Amino acid sequence: MKKINWGIIGCGDVTELKSGPAFNKVPNSALIAVMRRDAAKAEDYAKRHGVPKWYSDAHDLINDPDINAIYVATPPSTHEEYTLAAFNAGKPVYVEKPMSGDYASAVRMAKAARDKNIKLVVAHYRREQQRFKKVKQLIADKAIGDVRLVRLELAKTPLTPEELQDPKTIWRIDPATAGGGLFHDLSPHQLDLMHYFFGEVEKVTGLATNQAGFYNADDMVISNVLFKSGVVFNGTWCFNAGKAADYCEIQGTKGRISFTVFSTDNIIVEVDGKSEVLTFDPLLHVQQPMIEAVVNYFSDKGPNPDSGYEGAEVMRLIESCVRR
Question: Are residues 120 and 81 in the same domain?
Answer without folding.
Answer: yes
